[in-house]
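Problem: given the chain below (214 residues), write out its structure.
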Amino acid sequence: MKKENDPAKLERLKKKYQIEDYFSVRDLPFELYRFEKGEYLNNELDPADWLTFVVSGTIRILNVRDDGSVYQIAAGDDFSFLGDIEFGIGEASPYLVEVVRRTTCISLPLKQCRQQLENDPVFLKNMLKSVAVKMQAVTAGISEPRTLKEKVLYYMREECPDMTLTGVEKASLSLPCSKRQLLRILRTLQEEGIVIKTGKGKYRLLNEKTGRAE
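Solution.
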């Protein structure tokens, strides 16, 4: 992790991503950080102590079971927000936030402004919305298909523009599975006439009954 002391860059990113629109309080002590691939963001910026806006890069959120095994809960590219749930419950996060690609964050130390934020209706409204969106995603995930093949079809049908998967590595993070597993499933779907390859790393879902493009 590296703290970037670049006020001009910080102001530019705050404006680009409308960070200050999340608050009615002004002159908050935002800080700019950069993380490299393989680092764990929450080892340095614990969501219980920091509100963090991920403005570029790729992260994935992992959960560690009691037996020590790890599984992915979510993955995201570029803009995302961390710390909303922890702010609400006032406890440390049980999850790991792994950096998959160099990531830039705008973070806010809660020790300096928690009391102000607890009385900021604009901020509280935005926190409620953020938590609701995450809960909606979790609820939707409960009803999603369970086998990897079903997950790939669901992902292409519901989450890919024009039902075209673009970027195998990115899709493997979202599903989640390994790149090799995903390529194996895509190869099977091609053989079954359900998917066609349209370019490097690009696969289009066909009508599963007619074999024609949707």
